[in-house]
Amino acid sequence: MASLMGSSLLARTAITANATALIMFVVLALDLSYAAAGGVAAALTAGVALSGPLLGRLIDWRGLRTVVLTTVAAQAVFWLSVPLMSYSVLLVAALAAGLLMVPAQSVTRQAIAAMTTVPQRRAAFALEAVQGELSYLVGPAVVILFAANTSPEAVAWGVGAAIAVGGAWIGLLNPPLRTADEADADTGPRPPRREWLNLRMIAVLTMAVGVTTLLGGIDLAVIATLEEAGQVSRAALVVAVLGIASVTGGLIYGSQARSLPTWLLLGLLGLATIPLGLAADWRWLAAAAVIAGLLTAPTLSTVADAVSALAPAPVRGEATGLQSSAQSAGLALGAPLAGFAIDLTAPAGGFAAAGIAGLAAAAVGLLLTRRSPAATPSDDSVGVAAEGD
Fold first, then answer.
1. Whether 281 and 146 share a structural domain
2. What is the largest distance, in Å, between two alpha-carbon atoms of the chain?
């Protein structure tokens, strides 16, 4: 488990920073606009979002090592070639690279489900959520720092090397994706999608979109609020406070003996986000952001835990891939949603839009779960809303 977490952290930190690396390359090396850079980043993100269930299904069919090492080779070729590409070629290649991104996140989640017992999984998924927060804190900041002080070409090579090394490490570890009781799961018939992609799974995926929509909106609203206050240089500090609070919340939640429903955590996160718009100074905004930060990693961990519990073993790769795609879609939606609200109203509207998106997803998740058949004890333990919650 320690080796898996180490390799996954390396790969995920680089993957988190890959869009930033491409933006810096387009702006600094190709001397093009930020709009052009955003197009390349959007192409990469779209590819990653589309690839989740496809790569997950391939892992279910062909096994972890074959798929992971194939994507590692594709990433090595792409990032080595980035400095040689024109903008038009890079735009197409970025989409292809996204489609063949190393599935470090979904593989880690599958392995956690296979390598832990049910009572251990909440703590393990909380640690995985903390790992994700650390990657967001470290990856983009390191890329920006090095791109500004070295060269964007070297940064692109560095990001590619980190993705390749982390992915190859995961492939060589080849962690189990099935528990001992599920060892024969891949030899039988694959369950039809309509059997496992039911109301409970749709509820969890809806909440996965909701939580990342909220998080994507918060980042933009923080920048807009501090720009209006003439303190935009402090935005990085506020985002860092959010990340540190999230890491703390994940560690605290993982140490608890009882889990909470996903809809409840997401609803509380939404409620904690809306009042952030009342802060007009970076100090007050950072202080107010602590509560939202403390709820972030626990909410993300319950989503991952719920997906692993609800997905049958033969399709767990596809299910975790769908979760990754849902969260990518939420991140892509969050910033435009908050931006639209800010343009219509004020910076506070961005926080309101993000919080309401989280509350709406929590309400839909609760409604869908209550309409589904009765939950099993294992479902309740991972925080999926049930009639008894």
1. no
2. 62
